[in-house]
Design brief:
The chain has 36 helices and no strands. By secondary structure, the chain is mainly α. The protein is 69% helix and 0% strand.
Length: 658
Amino acid sequence: MKNKALFTLVVFLLIGCLAILLLKLFWHFSDTKSTQFYKQGLEFYQRKDYQNAYYNFKKISFLSAYSVPALYRQATCAWELNDIKTAAKKYSKFANMHKNSALAPEAIWKLALLEEEKGNKKRSKAYLAKLVAKYPKSDFAKAAAYKLGLFYRDNGDYNKAKDYFVEYIEYAPLGRYSTDVLNFLFEDYNIGNLIDSDKLHIAEALFINERYSKSISVLKEIPFDMSWFLLAKNYEKLSNFAYFEETLLKGVSLKQNKNTLKEKDLLDIMNLYIKKSAYSKEAGYNLILNTKENNLYPLSLFLYSKYVDKESAIKNYEKIYTDYPGSIVAPDALWFVFWHYYKKGDTDKALKLSKLYTNVYLDYNIQPKIMYWSAKIHLKAGRKKLAKSLLQNIVYNFPNSYYAFRADKILKRSKAPWVTNRTVKIKNKFLLKKMSPDLDTKENRLLYRFVELEDYSVIGNFKLDNPFLNSWLAALDDRKSYSVLLARDAIIAKPKTMFSEPVYKLAYPLYYKDALNKYAIKYEVSPYLMLSLTREESFFNNQAVSSTGALGLMQLMPATARLMDVTLYDNSKLFNPEYNISLGIKYFAHLMEIFNGNEPLCVLAYNSGPGSVKKWLNNFGGGDFDEFIENIPYPETANYIKKVYASYWVYMNIYEKI
């Protein structure tokens, strides 16, 4: 009896295992077939054969892991075929099943349009209102606000129309319908009836749309403490310097600016005023007089100090970091004083300042610079342990910094700290699909289904509150620059992110590696250095155009490009990635001949021209190369070489594990 029961249990277990195995095989077969049907459907869809596309998507089993993407695609096919009934049915089912997904707003938007087409305005309006209320941050909600505005306008309810139109213009000032909305607000509605915050949104939209005079007319109806900043920007765009100056000086004298405007924006517009003025020093002094009694005084003092003698400037900088330690300019002010004492040889005062800096300004990017130069002071004085501690601190706490690159070279006692490895080719270690998100949410699982199916045209709709995921999606969608910038910002937000984390590969990708390898090897320069230079020049945007007219991936000026290729007559060729890379690397190799193979000088010359570099070498070259870089009179160029070598350092750490 006992043996019989045991035998029965074993049989049941075997049957259960067999059932599970068969079920797994069925699911595997189902998903394999589903993938084939989906990819066939996608091919038909891309060829605009929506009937056959729909047929393939419909063949995917409801038991398949890809049933939900298939449902979405059935809806899009029916929409394209103008099959209103089927499209409405499929979109409604999708929206109900995945109401929290990034694709739900599109489904509801389509349902609203389908109901409108059927003549059911009441249901259409309900869907639009749901979009605005439930998905306020989606692009479809903005379009819905416009449609609701039209609905109320056509029904004579101008106040309700105004509410939706202002909402639209606030979130989409350059949107497709912004001109129509602005025209309505000016022609059919009395703007004077609007509250001040709504007027400000309209004035901002007018400014963005380059309708400066109209923007000014709206701003004049708003209290000056709310309007002056945008008012000044409008006058500057109209080249009306007298009004720009009058508005700015009156605005900066107000006491409540910090509550309404960002300190950096104020610093930028004050700096613009000084640059626009024919008398820079006097303009700076005017700012000081007008901000003497408020929190903008340290900004004015900082800007003014660029136009006075060195001794006066140092006194001003000391006042800023002593009396206004919370100002955004205090860290830079302290650095200028530190560097002043370092160059004078007064290292005791410099080190005293460095201690103040690390105690007060822990979160600023300038901290590794202060620490690096403090370490160099200790090295010169023979305090090797102190120096080593600081250098290790930089490498650990500021891993993607230029100063981490320099600190590491000193720690390893490198005999050629600036020489890059010209023999290491860029390898294919950038596998996008493997950088998958955590599949811990329904939303992420749906997103990954589309990625698995290589349906990249859909993933642009997934705008998640996660910079890594958005960067990954942008990379999959071939939006290279946007992807890099999102990942870079994610790293800035968490500066202690490890090189091994996938976000670093998104911030420092291996785009155009074949062309970079090919021409770097041909011209005997470092492939990774050329990759780093390309990243910093354009963030891999092959259509990039600078304010000075530099074009393409490696930002070549047409005249420079023609020096490298005398047959170049059509500048648009510089937007071709491989051609641009070939000329950019050829030009770098040309600079290597001019500067006898000195790579960092060539990096400087790539940005500022060989003439400028030769001039700096004559004026203050010949000593410590670190000091030479810090003494470059143009911050943009000094920062450029630091960015390129920081990128090189990061690339080598990610992909070559140096």
